[in-house]
Write a structure and sequence with these properties.
- Two copies of one chain form a homodimer.
- Chain A has 739 residues and is an alpha/beta fold.
- Helix content of chain A is 50%, strand content 8%.
- Chain A has 31 helices and 13 strands.
- The first copy, chain A, has a five-stranded parallel sheet with strand order 3-6-7-8-9, sandwiched between helices.
- Mean pLDDT of chain A is 86; it is low at 1-13, 27-62 and 70-102.
C-alpha cells in the first residue's frame, strides 16, 4: 500500500495522526444517530468532569502525596463553597460537625447553594408555606406518638427548635415487636402469657374503649388512656386539605422537590465513584448478603405461579382419594373435585392455572381479583389458598411454610405477608389464630400483618353486618379481649405476638362519594348500603389501633403498626389520611400528583413500599414508575413484590424485583443497598434483628446510624441524605422564625 | 341519612342510579390524569371490540349452537373479507389451504388488505423494489447453500415461482450437528474417528483449498469442491450496497415494515384471547417447560458474578497452598497470589470483584472489556477464566461444568457458549481441544462455538503474525487437517464434533476505514498495521467455513454455522455482509437504521439472537431496544444473555432475561413461547434434539411445522406468521412478474 516512502520517524507519526483523523471523520460521518441513544444522564461520556473524576478515583495506587495535592486544589477551586459551609444560609454542616460519626465519612464533594434561601418564591409566600409545612409536621408527630409509631428524631429536633422548646429524646416513641424465639424456645408456648387484668372493652362511636370493670363501662367512664379526638382530627385534616391545595405552598414544595432531584443528580455525578470505592473497600458485604425485607406481600399470593402449580400436582399425587370438601353433606375427594372441573392435574400448566396477571389486567382491578382463582375455579382457591376449609387450611399452611423455607435457604431475605380479617364475624380471629397455631405457621423469616378489605358494602348487601360499627367491633374487639385476658383465647394471644401491624386493602380507584367530616354518621349509625370513604375507614382503623397500642404498651406487649395500601390509585386525599395516621404505606404512586404531600412524605421520611412490577400489570407502566424519582429526591422507598403468584416469573421474586429495577432504572450498588436498608428499617423486624442486620446504632439518623459493614451503604450517601434533609428542615425553620 | 322515604322499589333503583351517576361524575372529576398512564396500545379498555372479544372468548361454556351463530355473524359482517381470501390480491390463503395442517388451526380473524398491492408507491417504484429484493434474496440463497446454511423453504418456493422454475425440495440444504451421545456412549471415544484421506490443505488468497495430494497442491489443482468466487461476491455486495441506499426500495420496505407492525397490532387485538385459549387447552406444557436456548453467551462470562465469587472463595479454602502460577521461574501459591494483590478472599465481595457492568460502561466498550478482570487483576482472569495457565485451565473447566450442571437441573435450558481461537498461533486449537478433552468439558446442555476476535492489528503490532493471511491460516488450517486426517490430532477431532459454528467478535464501533473491494489486498499481502474492515474479516471467515463444510459433508462429518456478532454498533454494512454470509447473527440492533436490510432479514427469516440486558449496559437503553418491534414485525428473534457475569443478578440468567423482557415489553405467554421456539430453531441443537423438543415436522414452515404440545405456541400465531410472510413474498412475485 505505501507507495511513497518518507524518512522513518516523521512518517510514522503522520500516519498515525492521519489514521486517527480519518477514523474520527469516518465515525462522525457514520454515527449521526448515536447521540439520541445515549444515556439517562444528559452528560456525554467525554464530559470532562466525569473523566477527571474517574481518573482520580479509579487510580488505586494514588499515594498520600497526590491525595493531599488534590485536596488542596479542591479547596482553592472551591473558595466560596468552603466558606459557605459555615455561613448561616447553610447551617446544615454545623449539625453534621456536631455529630460524632463512629465511622468517619470520607471526603466528598458537596452541593451548596449560596444566597437564596426562599428558593425563588416571594418572602411572604415562603413564610406562609413554611408555617403550613411546620404545622403539618406537627400534626403527624402528634398522631405518630399517640399510636407508638415512628417519627424522625431530626425532624422532631427542628420542630422543637422552631417552637423554642428543648428536644427531649425520651419523648420519642418506638413500636415494639416480638423478638424471634431464642434457641430452644417454643414460639407456641402458652405458659408465658400474662394473667387477666379483668378490664372490660366496649365500643363507643366506632372506637373501643377500656374500662376498669363492668360498672365503669356502664357508667361510660373509660380508663384514662390518651386517645384520638374526633373533632381535632377533622380539624387537622381540613387544615391539611387546604394546605395541599394552597397555591404558594404548592409552588414552594414543587420547587424544593425539583431542587432535590437536581441536587441528587449532581451529587451522583460528582461522588458516584467515591461511593463505589467505599463499597469496594467494604469487606465481605455486597448487595447479595445485605438483608432485605419484602415489605408488602399478600400471603395468599406469596408463592409464585410455578410453585403453586407444582404444589397442586404434588397434592394430587399424594392425596387423590382424600376428602377435601363437603357439598350438600356429600364427601368430595380431591380426584372428584378435579373431575368435576373437567381437569386432570397432570395436564395443568401455568397457562391453564391462569393466575398470572397478563395484559388483560391493566387498569382492571376487577379482573385482577378474579385471577386469584386457579383455573378460574373458586373451589381451588378455597382448597389451596384459604385458612378455613374442609382441611382446616392445611394446604395453604404447607405452601406458606415452603415459601418460608425457601427464604430461610436464601438467608438474607425476609417478608411481611398479610392475612385477612374481614370483620364479617367475631369468630374470624379465633379461626385464623387456630389455623396459625395448629399448623405451626411460624418462621423467623416472616413478620405477619393483618389486612382488612374495605368491603363493608358487600357485607351489608348480604346482611352479614347491621352497620359499619359492627364490622369494626368484629375486627378489634377480640384483639382487645385477648390483650386484657390472654388466657381466654391462648391461640389468638400467641398469634398476636407475631402480628406486627394492620393493612387496609382494596381497589382505591373505587370512589365512595362520601366526604369524611364532622357531620359524618358514627360507625354504629352507618347502616346504609353505601361504603364509607377511604378516609373514614382509615380514621377508625387508626383510632382503634392507637387505643390498642396504648393498652398493649401498658401490658408490656408488642404493638401494631398501621401500614395501609395508599396512593395506588384514587384521590390524593388518601395519601393525606395516611400522612396523619400511618407509620408507612404501600404503593404511594399518587404522591406524583401532589407536590405538597410528596414534600411532606420526604420531611417525615415516611417509608413507601413500592411494587413497580405490580403497578406495571395494574396501574402504571414500568418505565413510568416514580420509584427512581422518589429515591433520588430522598423519599424513603423500599421494593416489594405484592403478589409473586401474579406478577413474577423466577424462583426468587424479591430478587427479580430488585434486578428489574436495577436494570431499568440503572441503579448503582449503593442505590440498591440503600433501598435494602430502608426495607429493613421500614419493616417490623424486632429491635434485636435490626441491631443485628443494620448495626447497633440503627435508630440514629445519618451516617452515625449506618454500619457500612452490615448495610453496604456508603457513608457518603448517608451524609448526603442527612445533610439534605437537615437543609430542607432548616429552611422551614428560617421561614417560621422570620415572623 | 335518607330523610324522605319514597315507596320501596322505585326509590331503590333511583338511589342506585344516582349513586352510580355520582360515582362516575366523581371519578371523572378526580382522574383527569388517568389517561396518560394507560397502556401500550392505543385502545382504551372500554374499547367495544376488546369487550366483545373477551365476552366471546372467556365464556368457557359457550355451546356449539352459539359458536355457529357467531361464525355466521362473522361471515355476514365480513363479506368482502371472506371473498378476498380467494381473490388474486391475497392468494396467500391458497397456500394455507393447500397445506395439510396436522393439528388444525383454530378459527381466527384475519387482516386482509383489498385492492392496493403496490402498497402506496408508484408502479414503477414497486417493480424496481421488487426486482431488487428478489435479486437480494437470490444472492443470500446462493451463499447459504454453498456453506450448508439455512434458507427458508417457502422463500425458495416463491423465488422458483418468480423464475418459472420448479421447486425441488432436494436442493434445500441443512447443516449437520452431532447428536448427543446415546446412553453408555462415550463422547470422548477416539476409536470411531474416520481414517486419513491423505489430502493436502493449503491456503491460497486467504482461503484454504484441498488438494488430492502434494503434487496436485504444487500444481495448484484443488479438488473440485464448489467455492466462493471473490469477484462475484464483491459484485453481489456492491449490488446490495446500492440497493439499501436506493430511494424507492427504502420507501417501499419502510412502508411494508410499518404495515407489518400495524398488522400485528391488529392481529393481537383481535386474536389475543383465542391464542391464549389454545395455550390454556394445551395440556402439560407452559412457558416454564418449553425448551429454550441461550443462543449467545461467552464461556468466559457464562457464570454469574455471585457464582464466580463463590468459586473463588471455595478454591481458596481448598487450594490455598497449591502452586497456581510461575513468575520468573518461581512458584506462586494461591495464597501468595492473593497476598500479592493485597486481598483475602474472605473479604471479597461482588463489589470488590467488580466484574459487573455498571453505568460506567454505557457507550464504553473499552471499559466493558476491562471488567473481565476480577478485582481488576489480570492474574485472576488468567487463573479462573482461561484455558491455558499453570493449572491447564482446571478452574475454568470446573466453573463451566458447574454452570452446565445447573442447566441440567433446570432441564429445559440449553446454551451455546463461545470459546476463543485468536489465530495468533497454529497450536491454539491443539491446546484448546486438549483442555476440552482432558477436563471432559462436555454436557448435553452445551453446544460449543468458536469466537474469533477481530484483532489482527494487535497481533501485527506485537509482531505475532506477519500478515493477515497467517492469522486466517492459524484459525482454519488445523481444522482442515484434522478433518482430512482425524487421527493426526484426536483431541481436536473429538472437540470439533462438538463445535457447531464460528462467531466473529469485537467492538463494532471501531472503524477500520478500509473499504472491501476488488482492489483490496489479498490476506497474504495484508501486512500493514491497520486492521482489515468488518466485511473483509467476514468474507474470509465465510469463504473458509464454506470450503470446510464442503469437505466435512463429503466425509459425513458435522458442519459449522457462521453466526457473527453483527449490528451491535458501527456501520449498517456489517449487517449487509452478514446477510450474504451468516446463518444467523447476534445483536442486530442496527437493523433499526436500514429498512431495506430489516425487510430482507424478515424475508430471509434470518434469526437474530438479541440481548437487551447487555445492550442496556453498553449501547442502548432497555426501553428503546428494538426487540419488541422486530418481534411484532415478524423478524425471527431469540433472547440471549451474552455475559451473565457482567449483566445479570439472579441464579437463572436466561430466565431473568425472559422475565425482564416479558415485564417491560408486556409479552404474552404466546410471545414468550414463540421466542423460545425460535431460539431452539436458531440453535445448533441436533436434528434429533430438535425433533424431540419441537416435534417431528419442525423443519416444515407454518402451523404444519409446529407441535403445540411441545412448543406451546398457538397455531393461530403460526398461521398468522406464515400467511404474513407468504403475503409479502407474493407481493414481490407480483412486482417481478409485472414486467
Amino acid at each position: 500500500m505505501p507507495k511513497v516512502l518518507l524518512p522513518g520517524g516523521q512518517q510514522k507519526t503522520d500516519d498515525k495522526m492521519r489514521a486517527f483523523a480519518e477514523q474520527v471523520f469516518a465515525s462522525d460521518a457514520r454515527d449521526e444517530n448515536v447521540r439520541d441513544e445515549i444515556s439517562m444522564f444528559d452528560i456525554a461520556d467525554d464530559c470532562p468532569i466525569l473523566h477527571q473524576e474517574q481518573a482520580m478515583h479509579l487510580d488505586r495506587d494514588e499515594d498520600e502525596e497526590k491525595r493531599k495535592k488534590r485536596r488542596q486544589r479542591c479547596r482553592t477551586m472551591g473558595v466560596p463553597m468552603a466558606c459557605s459551609t459555615l455561613s448561616s444560609v447553610a447551617p446544615v454542616v454545623d449539625v453534621e460537625v456536631e455529630t460524632p460519626t463512629y465511622l468517619e465519612v470520607p471526603d466528598f464533594q458537596r452541593v451548596a447553594i449560596i444566597g437564596d434561601y426562599a428558593s425563588g418564591v416571594t418572602m411572604d409566600d415562603f413564610e406562609l408555606s413554611c408555617k403550613g409545612l411546620y404545622r403539618a409536621m406537627n400534626i403527624r408527630e402528634k398522631y405518630m406518638r399517640l399510636a407508638f409509631q415512628r417519627f424522625p428524631n431530626i425532624t422532631s429536633q427542628y420542630l422543637r427548635e422552631m417552637e423554642g422548646e428543648p428536644f427531649r429524646p425520651e419523648d420519642q416513641v418506638q413500636p415494639v415487636f416480638t423478638s424471634p424465639p431464642k434457641k430452644g424456645e417454643d414460639p407456641f408456648d402458652v405458659n408465658a402469657l400474662p394473667k387477666n387484668l379483668g378490664y372490660v372493652a366496649r365500643m363507643k362511636d366506632g372506637v373501643i374503649y377500656v374500662y376498669d370493670d363492668q360498672a365503669a363501662a356502664d357508667k361510660g367512664q373509660p380508663r384514662a388512656l390518651p386517645c384520638t379526638d374526633y373533632d381535632t382530627f377533622i380539624d387537622d385534616m381540613n387544615f391539611l386539605i387546604a394546605l395541599i391545595a394552597q397555591g404558594p405552598t404548592k409552588t414552594y414544595t414543587h420547587r424544593r422537590l425539583k431542587f432535590l432531584m437536581s441536587k441528587f443528580n449532581v451529587h451522583e455525578m460528582l461522588n458516584e465513584m467515591e461511593e463505589l470505592k467505599e463499597l469496594k473497600n467494604n469487606p465481605h458485604r455486597d448487595f447479595y448478603n445485605c438483608r432485605k425485607v419484602d415489605t408488602h406481600i399478600h400471603a395468599a399470593a406469596c408463592m409464585n405461579q410455578k410453585h403453586l402449580l407444582r404444589f397442586i400436582k404434588h397434592s394430587y399425587r399424594v392425596d387423590a382419594e382424600r376428602v377435601v370438601r363437603k357439598v350438600d353433606g356429600k364427601d368430595v375427594t380431591l380426584k372428584e373435585l378435579f373431575q368435576g372441573l373437567n381437569l386432570h392435574p397432570y395436564d395443568l400448566t401455568v397457562d391453564s392455572l391462569d393466575v398470572h396477571a397478563g395484559r388483560q389486567t391493566f387498569q382492571r382491578f376487577d379482573k385482577f381479583n378474579a385471577k386469584y382463582n386457579p383455573v378460574g375455579a373458586s373451589e381451588l382457591r378455597d382448597l389451596y389458598m384459604k385458612t378455613e376449609n374442609h382441611l382446616d387450611g392445611e394446604y395453604f399452611a404447607t405452601i406458606i411454610k415452603e415459601v418460608a423455607s425457601d427464604l430461610e435457604d436464601a438467608k438474607y431475605q425476609y417478608a411481611e405477608p398479610r392475612l385477612s380479617i374481614y370483620g364479617c364475624n367475631p369468630s374470624e380471629w379465633t379461626k385464623l389464630s387456630g389455623w396459625f397455631v395448629r399448623h405451626k405457621v411460624f418462621s423467623p423469616q416472616f413478620k405477619w400483618m393483618i389486612q382488612v378489605p374495605r368491603i363493608y358494602d358487600v357485607f351489608k348487601a348480604r346482611n352479614f353486618v347491621p352497620h359499619f360499627g359492627k364490622m369494626l367491633e368484629n375486627i378489634f374487639l377480640p384483639v382487645f379481649q385477648a390483650t386484657i385476658d390472654p388466657h381466654s383465647n391462648p391461640d389468638l394471644s400467641l398469634f398476636l405476638q407475631h402480628v406486627t401491624g394492620f393493612d387496609s386493602v382494596d381497589d382505591e380507584s373505587k370512589h365512595s362519594g362520601h366526604m369524611f367530616c364532622t357531620k359524618s354518621p358514627k360507625p354504629e349509625e352507618w347502616d346504609i348500603a353505601k361504603n364509607p370513604s377511604y378516609t373514614y375507614y382509615i380514621y377508625y382503623m387508626y383510632a382503634n389501633i392507637a387505643m390498642l397500642n396504648q393498652l398493649r404498651r401498658e401490658r408490656g406487649m408488642n404493638t401494631f403498626l398501621f401500614r395501609p395500601h395508599c396512593g395506588e390509585a384514587g384521590a390524593v386525599t388518601h395519601l393525606l389520611a395516611a400522612f396523619m395516621t400511618a407509620d408507612n404505606i404501600a404503593h404511594g404512586l399518587n404522591l406524583k400528583k401532589s407536590p405538597v404531600l410528596q414534600y411532606l412524605y420526604f420531611l417525615g421520611q415516611i417509608p413507601v413500599a413500592m411494587s413497580p412490577l405490580s403497578n406495571n400489570s395494574l396501574f402504571l407502566e414500568y418505565a413510568k414508575n416514580p420509584l427512581l424519582e422518589f429515591h433520588k429526591k430522598g423519599l424513603v422507598v423500599s421494593l416489594s413484590t405484592d403478589d409473586p403468584m401474579q406478577f413474577h416469573y423466577t424462583k426468587e421474586p424479591l430478587m427479580e424485583e430488585y434486578a428489574i429495577a436495577a436494570q431499568v432504572f440503572k441503579l448503582s450498588t449503593c442505590d440498591m443497598c440503600e433501598i435494602s436498608r430502608s426495607s429493613v428499617l421500614q419493616s417490623a423486624l424486632s429491635d434485636e434483628e435490626k441491631t443485628h442486620f443494620l448495626g447497633e446504632h440503627y435508630l440514629k439518623e445519618g451516617p452515625e446510624g449506618n454500619d457500612i459493614r452490615k448495610t453496604n451503604v456508603a457513608q457518603i450517601r448517608m451524609a448526603y441524605r442527612y445533610e439534605t434533609l437537615c437543609y430542607e428542615l432548616n429552611l422551614i425553620k428560617e421561614g417560621v422564625k422570620a415572623e
